[in-house]
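>> Question from a student workshop board

For tomorrow's exercise we were told to take the sequence and the ligand below, predict the bound structure, and bring the output to class. My setup keeps failing. Could a helper post the expected result so I can at least see what it should look like? The ligand is nicotinamide-adenine-dinucleotide.
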Amino acid sequence: MEKVSVIGMGYVGFPLACAIAKCGKYETLGFDIDEKKIDMIKARKAPVDDRRASDDILTVSLRASSSSDDLKDSDYIIIAVPTPVTEAKNPDLGPVKSAVELIVPYMKKGQIIILESTVNPGVCDEDVLPILERSGLKAGVDFDLAHCPERINPGDEKFTVYNINRNIGASSLSGVKRAAAFYRSFLDEGVLVNEMSSLQAAEATKIVENTFRDINIAYVNELAKSFEMMGLDIVEVINGAANKPFAFLAHYPGCGVGGHCIPVDPYYLIEKAKKIGFTHDFLIYARKVNNSMPGYTVGKLSSGLNELKLSVNGTKVGLLGLSYKANVADFRESPAFQIKKKLEKLGADLLICEPHADGYEDLDRILEECVAVVIAADHNEFKQIRDWGNVRLVVDGRNCLDKEEIKAKGILYKGIGRN
Ligand SMILES: NC(=O)c1ccc[n+]([C@@H]2O[C@H](COP(=O)([O-])OP(=O)(O)OC[C@H]3O[C@@H](n4cnc5c(N)ncnc54)[C@H](O)[C@@H]3O)[C@@H](O)[C@H]2O)c1
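>> Workshop helper replied:
Here is what the output should look like for this input. Compare the format with yours to find the bug.
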């Protein structure tokens, strides 16, 4: 059996390693520097919140290790480590580079190294290959580097690591063919594995997908602000426009963009372009608009309280949801933390409910004690609230509630671009 090692047992690497192990064609190893994650996998528990992978790990043969010696004799090594930004929003290739450095002593002829982490065009050629070639082996001759950007949307039950189409580029023509054949060997039958002309083209594809989302969300966030002033409901308008599916793709406004991808990846392209003398104004502006949304949401709260003749300072406010999207325990880059910080600064007496984490307030207590609530994540628990207790103002940061139902109870409703 050929051996596959996956480096990084996170939201991307763990379900992927399970899928590879599940096909039964490879000896599969999951590697991470985080020993807690490795211990969990050894105990057949998923180290990330992923329903399908949590089932898979109970049945598949996946070894787990945090000892780099176990990477020895791998025919394929896949890297799925984070690609964050620094405080100043500069790309941080530290985790990618250190994962690549880790494998240099274990490289061998005929091997394929695959980067799945999201990076800007040029990272494979300029940052990854020079490190790999320290092994004394030549890319495209002795080994191949491939880039197959992961497109998984954690929590999505329909589109999974098994059935999402793939784009792949490599350091040689034969390399891209071999790497594509490897992916086809474990993905569902019929899934497209698109062989691209270069590593850079594959890198660019993923960045384009995510900047497309960021820009579209920024567009509707901006519309939310102006339509609200015109007395229009943005959700009604977007749903109207979306009944022309051949020319309009619905995106919805909200209290901010979170997660490890959309609010991060644009900075990789912005910085790359800057280095070659190009300013991506459009991307920079989209980031600015989306970064303004937590502040806008807090503004909705303070204007709502003002209508009730109350101040933020000293008022009991419930913050509902800390994760960046519905029904998941993923808190990375979540706008809820910006909202929390701003509310604390304004002196709100804050109670927080997060059903997907331990140690937070009970929802019933919040509805009983708070005058106002801000919904920052559209978890099912919040969408199902029918008895709002003593709440007099609801700021619906995800436009996930029936506003007429809330208003009919005499409660002040403020959404994002809809009142
Ligand atoms: N989460 C998503 O929705 C998603 C979707 C598509 C693509 N991506 C991209 O995939 C990549 C990984 O994202 P993720 O969400 O899985 O991250 P994650 O933080 O969930 O997991 C990354 C794992 O890598 C480990 N790690 C970090 N440095 C390491 C090193 N040097 N050696 C070994 N292990 C190391 C960490 O301990 C962690 O367990 C990123 O580039 C991300 O942009 C993420």
